[in-house]
Amino acid sequence: DRFSCFKEFESFLEQKGPWICGMDFPFGQPVKFIESLALPPTWPDYVKHLSKLEKKAFEKKVNNYKCLQPTGAKEPLRITDTLADAQSPLKMVNAPLAKMFYEGAPRLLKSGVSIIPCLPKDDNRIVIETYPALISRRFAESYKNNGNKDSSQKLSARQSIIAGLNLQLLNNDFGFDINLSKNIADMAVEDASGDVLDAILCAIQAAWSYKQGKSYGIPDNQHPIIKSEGWIIDPSMLSAKPLKEPSIHHSDNWLISNPKIKNLMGQIKRLSDIGRSLSGEFNLEALLEMIVDEARTFTNADGGTLYILDGNTLCF
């Protein structure tokens, strides 16, 4: 189905289960962004807080946060975005992911559905975050045309993706065959916007997630950072098998076998620890010394100097 307004989206969420649906928008935001705004760390609490803001006020907070970042710094990513090579959920233009989060996440929370992994519930209406590009990249590059006229390259790309869904390569990754009716396959190829094809790819990821049982295909769906930021569902996101009994106490077992994630989570934890240490120091001289020492250690620098900008002058 295609929704022409948010009312139709809300009505869909109210439909009786059982069903599982993959949705292509970010459910959560990076921990760094949440902490910078001093928001509650848990997903339902910070979503509820942000949903109380007017849309323009939310956009202003996002833009203000970006303005405070060092020149040339990239927009922050969630751990799952880094692994999926996805764009930042704070992006505001072209694919306005921040706006999609602002409109989508509160509606998910309000609907009472089971939101994996952010707010799982004993409900047979289940939503997961999917990313169709993780499938389409296996077979082609860009396949969407944003203008009125479709290009032969984009058309060929959609044809390649549809053809690829029948290959053993995909069966090896997902563990099941995909059978599309000719009518649906033709619709996916002919739809220049890519919406029909996106829906098919999201459905494939949702089906795979459902087959994984309680883990839903998430390495540790009880880890506090994953529950806060959300997780994109796709077998390519796994570099280690999910735990049989996911638990916050077992998260280190998973991190040890995922060096890239271990490094990312280690950095996030370190920044959080530094913030707590700094907030507890009230002696200015000691505080400034801590800032330099922690910054030097965190960046592996040989030395550090703190200056304060006073007008056009740098003051030591």
Q: Indicate the multimeric state.
A: single chain
* Tally of DSSP β-strands: 5
Strand order of the largest sheet: 1-3-2
Give the count of helical stretches: 15
Question: Can you give a write-up of this model?
Answer:
With 316 residues, this protein is mainly alpha-helical. It contains 15 helices and 5 strands. The chain has helices at 6-13, 31-36, 43-51, 55-67, 79-84, 97-111, 133-136, 152-164, 168-174, 182-190, 195-211, 224-229, 251-256, 259-279, 284-299, and strands spanning 19-23, 114-116, 125-129, 308-310, 313-315. The strands form 2 sheets. Strands 1-3-2 form a 3-stranded parallel β-sheet. Strands 4-5 form a two-stranded antiparallel sheet. A hairpin with a 2-residue loop joins strand 4 and strand 5 (313-315).
Topology of helices and strands:
Layout: H1 6-13, E1 19-23, H2 31-36, H3 43-51, H4 55-67, H5 79-84, H6 97-111, E2 114-116, E3 125-129, H7 133-136, H8 152-164, H9 168-174, H10 182-190, H11 195-211, H12 224-229, H13 251-256, H14 259-279, H15 284-299, E4 308-310, E5 313-315
Parallel strand pairs: 1-3, 2-3
Antiparallel strand pairs: 4-5
